[in-house]
Amino acid sequence: MDACFEILLSTRQTLDYLECHQESFTWGDVEYPQGEKYYLWGKYIKLVEREIPSHIIKRLPSAYGSMQWLNFSVQGKGLDLLESEVNGSVTDWEGKSFDKFLKLILTEQPQWVVIFEWHCDRIDSLYQQNVSECISQIKNNLQWDNNREGFIVISFPENGVGSSAIAG
Question: What is the spatial distance between Cα 23 and Cα 71, in angstroms, rounded to a whole number?
């Protein structure tokens, strides 16, 4: 699938439910980190911490664009497997499903943003949703018979309820 998937988190939690990895090399009995730090959720979902692309910041509402975010690019086979699952294939997530991952990482955050870009350059809509609605939006977008779109989902304030589309 030709899509980019990013998650912006408003706080850095311990993320101790993810496996943290970083390549390193040893020189004179001292270990030195090398390369980017990344996190794994099971076998199929890899999170790479990186800078937020400037075109994403420009699309966020002003209150969100000025916040300090922690950005993770979601890589690995997870999104492809979720697409297959949504379209009828059986996927063995080995207890680490995409749904569980999103629920866990987003519900522990006071504010979050999910970015789903078709072809890594297409954002059609901006939504404000809760975690369950966001997961449904992603799954609906992965249906082969639906008109696919790129979108940004921003979280409701902690006590918000319901869903809305925001003119972009």
Answer: 20
